[in-house]
Structure formats: C-alpha cells, structure tokens
Amino acid sequence: MDFFVGHYNYWIFVFLMMLGFYVVVARGNLVKKIIGLNIFQASVFLLYISIGKVFGGTAPIIIEGAGGSPVTYSNPLPHVLILTAIVVGVATTALGLSLVIRINEAYGTIEEDEISEMDLEP
Amino acid sequence: MRHHIILRVVAKLSIPFIMLYALYVQFHGDFGPGGGFQAGVIFGAAFILYALIFGLDNALKVAPMNVVTFFISIGLLLYAGVGVAALFYGGQFLDYGVLASDSVSGQHLGILLVELGVGITVAAVMIAIFFTFADRGR
Amino acid sequence: MIAAHYPALQIVAPLIAAPLCVLLRRGTLAWLIAVAVSWLVFFIAIQLLQQVMASGPISYELGGWAAPWGIEYRIDSVNAFVLLIVSGISAVVAPYARATVAKEIPEDRHYLFYSAYLLCLTGLLGIVITGDAFNVFVFLEISSLSSYVLISLGKDRKALTAAYQYLVMGTIGATFFLIGVGLVYAMTGTLNMADIAVRLDAVENTRTVLAAFAFITVGLGLKLALFPLHLWLPNAYAYAPSAVTVFLAATATKVALYTMLRFVFTLFGADFALNVTFLAGFLMALAIVGVFAASITAIFQNNIKRMLAYSSVAQVGYMVLGVSFFSVTGLTGGIVHMFNHAMMKGALFMALGAVFYRLGTVHLDRMRGLGRQMPLTMFAFVIGGFSLIGLPLTVGFISKWYLILAALERGWWPIAGLVLLSSLLAVAYVWRVIEVAYFRDPPENHPKVTEAPLSLLVPMWILVLANIYFGIDTSLTIGVAERAAKSLLGLGG
Amino acid sequence: MTGELAIIAAILVPLIGAFLIAASHRHPNQREAATLVTATALFILVASLLSPVLAGQRPETTLWEIIPGISISLQAEPLGMVFALIASFLWIVTSVYSIGYMRGHHEKNQTRFYVCFAIALSSAIGVAFAGNMLTLFIFYEVLTLSTYPLVTHHGTDEARRGGRTYLGLLLFTSIAFQLLAMVWTWSVAGTLDFTPGGILAEHASPVVFATLFVLYMFGIGKAALMPFHRWLPAAMVAPTPVSALLHAVAVVKAGVFSVLKVTIYIFGVDSLARIGGSDIILYVAATTTILASIIALRQNNLKRRLAYSTISQLSYVVMAATLVNDFGILGGTLHVAMHAFGKITLFFCAGAILVAAHKTEVSQLNGIGRAMPWTMTAFTIGALSMIGLPPTAGFISKWYILLGALEADAMIIVGVLVLSTLLNAGYFLPIVYSAFFREPDTPAKHGEAPKTMVGAIGLCAGGTVLLFLFPGQILALAHMLIGNVP
After folding, report:
1. Which of A24, D93, D318, D392 is the most exposed place for a label (fewest CB within 10 A)?
2. Number of domains into which chain A is organized
3. pTM: predicted TM-score of the whole model, two decimal places
4. CATH of residue A25
C-alpha cells in the first residue's frame, strides 16, 4: 500500500504524462494535440516541484527576526528550473498554435487525416 | 464588449492597479517572491484585459505592434548588456559583483537590471502573442 | 584579456545580435550582422580549439559562481570540435543565405529570419558549450523553437505541417530529456555535469538512474532522428527554406549526437552504459536497420531534397554505429563522421539550394540536363555525392575507413560488410541524380536556366573543397576526434 | 630529371593535359593537338624510368599521409613499369585513332570525351606506380569513375543501362570486397605497403589469409572473374576507341595488374604456395576462361565477341598468378603486355569496320577483306595472337603460362589451356575466313577507314609481331620480378 500511497505524487505524474501523451498520439485535431502536449509538459513540472518539496519546510525566504536560527525550507532550485521550463512551454504552445492557424489558412482544416490526404494529391 | 458598462468601469479601475502590482512584483523580487517573469506576465495581462474590453484597435493605438517588438528586443538587450558590461568591468559574464564599488550593491544593481530586462521582454512578448492571434483572420 | 572570455562570447555574440536584428528592421543590415557574428563565433571556436588542444579543458564560470553551484561552461576536445563544426557551417551558410532568402521569403520578414537564425545558432552553440545539465535543456529549446520557426518559413504549405510535426515530436523529445535530468537531479542533487559524473557512481544501480538514462537517451534519440524516431526529419528538411536546410542538416543532428555522447560517456560512464543497460547492442541494431531502411527509402524519392533528408537519417546511423562500438576507433569514426557529414551534406544541400534558386523545384524530372546548364553547381553535387558514397579522396572515405576498422577490430566482420553494402545504396540514389543531370537532355518546354550566382557558388565550393581537403589531410580531424574519443572513454586526452 | 619527379610528373601530365583539353574546347584542332602532345610527353616520361628500373633502382616517393600511418606513396617497380609502358604507349596510338574515329563518326561531347580519357590515363598510371594498397585503391576508383562518362557517352537509354551495369558492378566489387579486404589487411598487418614477399603471412591465420585472398580477387572486379564479369560486355556501348584502350588496355589491365600486384606484394608467392588459399580462385579463373569462350562463340555482335574473349584472356592472367610459381608470374606479366597489343588491334579493326562500312555484326562481314585488306590483315594478326600462335606475341606468354601449369602439376589447368585455345580458334578463325574467302552479300561501296585509323591499326598489329620477335625489355622486367621473389 505504501508503495502506492507513499509515492502518490509519482502516480499523478505518470497518469498525467500518459494522458497527455495519449492525446498527442491519438487525436487527429491539431489543437487537441497541443493541449495534450501541454498536459504532458505540466506533468513534468509537477514532478519537479514535488521532488523539491521538503515536508514541513517553508518558502526559502530570509525571515526577519529568526536571527539566523536554522529554518527548514523547500529546495528552491526545482522551482527556478520549472519557471524556465514553463516559459519554454508557453513559447512552444504559442508557436504551435500559430502554426495551427497558418495551417488552417493554408489547408482550410486542422484535422490531421484530411491534411495528409490533401498533401498526397498533387 | 464595449457596451458592457460594468466591465468597462471595472476594467478602467483595475488596470492601473494591475500595472502597479506588476511593478511591485518586479521590484520587490529580490526581497520576496517575484521577479521579471511573473511581473512581465501580470503587466502584459493589463494590456490584454484592455484589448479584450475596449477592442484590439484601441489597444493597438496604445501599444502599436512595432513598439511592442521594439520592447521585446530592448529587454533582451538590457539583460545581455548587463552581462557584457560585467565583462568590461573585469568580471566574468553576468558577474554583477563588479558593477558597483562593492560586491553586494553590485549584485543588487545587476539583478535589478537583469530582472527589469526580463520583465520588459516577457510583458512585450505576452502582448505581442495576444495581438498577433487576435489580429489574425479579422 | 578578451581571450579569457571567449567561452561566454561564443554564446553572447549571437544572443545579442538576434534582438539587434529585430531592432534594426532592415533585411540587409540583419544579414550583415548574421554574417559578421557567424565569422566571429567561427574565429572564437578556432581559438578555443587551439587552446584546448594546447593546454587541456577550459572552464568558465558564469556570473563568477563557482562550479557545482553556478552554471559552468566547460570546453574539452569533444565539444571544442563540435563548436568548430557548428560555427564553421554557420560561417559559410550565413553568406549563402542572402540570395536564397531573398528569393524564398517575403521581404518584410527577412530581419525576423536572420533573428531566428541567430537564435538557432545561439541555441546550438549553447547546448555544446555548457557544462550544466539543465542549461542543455534551455539551449535545446532555444534552438528547437527557432528551428520550428525557420522551417515553417518554407514556400510550400507542407512546410507548415512539417514544422508542426517537428514541434510535437521535438517537444516530446525535449520533455523526455527534462524528465531524465530531473530524475538525475533527484538522485544526485546537482546539475553540474562533472559533479553528476562523480556522484552517479554511488547510486548507479538504482532503478531511478536507469529510468533517467532511458528517458535521456530516448529524448535525445528523437532530436537525433535516430531510426525509428526520425519521422519528423524528412519533411522538415525537404520543405524548409534552402539556407535553413543546409544549416540544420549540417549541424542539428550532430549537436544532438554530441549531447548523447556527453550524457552517455561523461555522465553515466561507458561502463554503466555498456554493462548495465546494453545500450551498445540497441544502438548498433538501430543504427544498422536505420542505415538500410533510410537508404532504401531514399532511392525511391523524386524530391531530391527529401532524398538527401533520408540519406541524413542513414548517415546518423553511421555516426551512431561508430559510437556503439564503444572503442577508441569506433568513437573516432563516429566523431569524425559528424564533421565529415556536416561537410558533405552542407555542400549537397547548398547545391540543391542553388538548383531551387534557378528552377524553383528540386524534382528529379526537372533536373534533366542540368549538368550542362549549371555545370559548377552540379559538379559540386557530384563531389558531394562521391563523398556520401565514401569514395577515396573525399571525407566520406575517412569515416568509412574508421567504421570498418572498428568493426574488424572487434572481429565483427559481418558489420563491416553491412557498412560497405549500405554505401552501395548511396551509390544508387546519388547516381540517379547524376545520370539525369548529365546524360539526359533538358526538358524542351521549359526556359533555359543559367548557372547560379556567385554568392551561392562560393560558399558551396568552399564546402566542396573542404570535402576534398579533409579527405586527403586528416591530421586535424582525426587528431582531434581521436583525442575526443579517448577523453570520452576516460583514457586521457 | 630524377626518378621521383618523373613518377609524379607521369601522373600530373595527363591531368594538366585534361585541363588544356578542356580549356581549348572551342578549337578542335588545338584540342586534339593537346591530346597528342600530352600522350607523347607521358610516354617519354614513363620510358625515362625504364633504365633506372632495369638497373635495379626503385624510385619512390611519399606524397602525404591520409590516415595516420597510411600515405599516398608511389613507387616504380618492374611490374608497374610493364603496365605503365603499355598504357602510355598505346595512348598515343589510340589518340591518333580516336581523332579519326570521333570525327569520322560525328560524335558529340568530344571535349568531355578527351578530358575523361586523359584523367583515366592519369589514374591508370597511378595504379601502375602505386606504392601501397591504399594508393592503388584510390587510383583504381578514380579510373572507374572517370571511365563511366565514356561508357555512357551516347546518352541513349542503352548507354545509360550499360553505364549502370558498368559502374554498379565495379563499385560493388571494389567497395564491398576490396575495401573490406584492405581494411582487414591493415588491421591485421598494420601496413599496406607493397613489400616483396608479402606482408600478411606472419600476421594472419591460414583461414584469414585464404579469405582475404578470395576477397581481393573478387574485389578486383576489373579482372572480370565470373560471376562479376558482366560489366565488360555492358561497357561495349561505348565508342570504339574507349573499348579499345580502356577495355582492352587501361581498365582491364589495371584489374589483372592489381591481381598480380596483390599476389606478389601483399600475399607473396611463396607464402601463398605454402599456406594455400589460391586454389579456389585458380579454378574460378579456369571456369571463367572456358565459359567466356563458349559465350563468345555465340555472340554475333563483333564487339561483344571481343569482350567475352577479353574476359577469357583476363582469366589467363589470374590463372597464371594463382599457379603461384615463377613461370606463372612470368607468364602472367607477359600476358598483360601481349594481350594488350593483340586486343587493341582487334578493337581498332572493329571500329574501322563500323566507321567505314557501318557494320557491327559478325554475320555481316562476308567478303569485307577485299574492301578493307589492311584492316582485315591486322585483324588476322590480332586473332592469331589471341589464339597464341607464332609469329605473334600471344604465343610467348601462353607458353610460359603452360610451363607454369606443368610445373605446378596442374593437369586440369593444362587441359583448360588447350581447350580454350581451341575455342579461341573456334570463334576467331571463322571471321577471318569469311572476311577473305566468302563472297560479299552486297557489293561493297566503301573502302578503307580514314588514314589515321588505318595507321594506328597497322602500328598495333606491327607491335604484336614485333613483341614476338623482340620481347627483350619486357621479358627482362618480368624476370626481375621473379628475381625479387626469393
């Protein structure tokens, strides 16, 4: 039981990751693929944040008046990393969506199978 | 959505505070939670709200596209410029310590400028993304 | 004193130039900046390589933060060589870009093109130079995002779908890589590569490390276009603007391979990869199947850019094959093939770019009789093709030689035979083009075409001559590659 | 001029010639003059090396290192001298001939033709003077590539098909077998230098030794051992001077020359005889001889018949080499020279018949000897040389090969030699007979071919006879070769 409950953050991560991955692979709609990609990335963000958490720890900020006594705080580094990763994710999403718009303008559809059909014609 | 009077009034009232809050997050970043990324997004959100309520054309009058792209590059240049300035002061790249007479205030100045650069770019990029998408297919 | 800051300048120069291009808003100025910066980084890369060869690895601490905590740029013989490849290719592609970009991309977007190009260059150089595992991810995404943009600028609407496909697969690859790095970080508590390498030893046999290894290799395999993860590559290369195809084909996969080498050998260690994960067998099988599958597919392509794109997948197979021997000779072959393949594919795609510039298409049918109409371009293609086949006096021969030697050293002569057989497939697809271009009459109902302009020919021929020069004087390439191989295997150097 | 310089110059001169030819593409006379001057200069250069080599010197030079430990190096030794002398001398003759042929036949793309021809010659000389296996391999491949445009010269579907077969087979064998064998040799022996007595014997196990020998022999596709012989008939779509010089002299001789060179200097005759491994190839070559002759019997196209005859004659050399004794080496070396003269005569005749009478099939040749007496006399001399009858050069080499077979106690090979001689007679003599003694089907409206062509034919036929009467120099070179084999 402990294997499942004790590592619940990993299970959530795995579930979200597979969910996102499935959407990317199985959906033919290009926008839905981007959504799946976002879920996929978000799962990784959760993984990072959750492994940085120290139980009972606070935010890693200097607290005035504590007078240098040791304070337990969560590892800030994963947050910093994930901040960067989120920015990258935003950029990817924006770029992906803009590509979808351009594809829609060029093909008149955003369904993958219709697009590949049209590509075969000429 | 211009004819929704409530929305208009609330937006007009809140936009200045959103911007102010963005500036707080920006400049308080080295003491508490915050920093360029977050501040930039909040600042950008103010513009996006404005564009949503008052229409894209009005928003474009406030922030024309080429001004936005200008700020995108200026922010990035500010960031990299601080790093290069550190080189000229004899430190490593991005070594803020050498920017002022003593190391601590140098670090302070350096991170302030760098985060400002980040904030400007992020805000401008957010606005640009929204404008581009909203402008498409009109 | 500027020499001490070369590692930072290598990245910062293109990084600053990219927003400058946007600020200036002039296509010509942006192009001039791109050329100047490319030459600057090439110069710096040469200096760095000399420094490394003379006095060992260089370490540069960003922001003055000491190594395990701050981000460190670390240059040894392996990445100095890759830096040289990337910046060298950029130094010839940038001048080449002007004419083709003017033809293929709307005028008002030229400055954005060069800006994206410089960002891509920044990203690729950054991946190579950094000594920080997470920093690799950041630069990987900088280069990937800008290359999606560059690819989508292609004239054909298929460029859009190609870019989208690449975006999806590239993001999955990068995210896999990110997961792997996260797991490694969870096990070791550090992101500095040298530090990770030391600390991983203690936890080497945990399942987490194995999972991290798997995620990282698969993620990089996607970026590397290792068969069967190559599906994004053919379309991306086929429909991107000519200059982009040249640049990406010559650099992107090499950088991904370098990253894989770095993680497998420096971080995890050859012993771990060889004995715990059986990576060698996997890689070898994939490489050989990939070489054959991609080469055979290439034979049936009528779009020549697509044909060469498939050939790129096959060539990646050769590089990976060299790596999979886990021996000095094999790694030397793999590493030197990175350089050699950059030279040959660069030259070939440049020739095709010139053909596209004149004809507006690279369809095999329309290339009839081109040998007479564009003699210099097509001759460049012929020599590039010879190099691809691996005929002597070209760089391709050197790579083949080392691969075969590595196979024979291990006593695996069937592998050597397969390598040789596969190069005959290259004969088949290269010869289709040569035959059509030289021994067929030009199509009658089309206007006569003339030779490409000098601004395309000069960069093209620089690469062609490099193909020949480095095929007969290998002291530089083999010397560096051998040292790099030794250092990766932990044998000094 | 020192020997070292002469070797380098011998390779460079045709290349410079190629450049001059390309430069004067607007002026046919100037272009042809460039060809002739280059050819003559090359022959003089090669001939100047003869006396030092006969005096026992081995001029050599190392140009540069390609891969650490392996250089491009050149060396003049007796076997290479034989090949270089023949190739460079016959280039002069062929140049004279092809000027007449190409103009008489109104070929297009003549500049490309002459340029590729010169490059091919340069690489043939490179093969002859190669000082190690890598150098040989490089020039061997250049020779393949530079002759490909000559084969596909006409640009028709048939020519392209022929070119594909030509290139495909030659590249296939050389890359798949020869390159593999070469790298293997390097990884086993640590050197690729041609060394008298061989380099492999001390390093390789008997199995590897034998495997490598087989790989080399099939890898040298230009020797046209069955089943890799099909490129030679396919190459017959080329213009006749190409077939004559390249497919009777430069290309195929580069093949059998490489066979001899590898046998003597990589494996060593004594080591081969001791360790074994050459028997398989001996019988493959014997089979090739017989089969090719039988196929030749059934060919109606004159050039194809000559091509199959070439295949069978090439296998003589391979057989001679794989008998691994002194007489065999002697016979093989001589046959390189003797067959060259005879076969080029025959091809020249075929070309002359094409230009003058526009005939390509054997069955059309009834009575042609009356219209073209000089040509057909030369043809007869060439045919006699192929069969191996005195007073022609072919007799001498065949004699030595026979001695070699007897010394090796290989009665089967003796039988093969006798049988193939009969077959040779079977497919050549009927041509001679019908040319001179049959009535023409239709009255001939043509005379002899252009004078330059007939002159060249006469020179070659004369050479075939003269080599029988005065084989001195070549015999001396060949003897040095077995002197080298301790």
Report:
1. A24
2. 1
3. 0.90
4. 1.10.287.3510
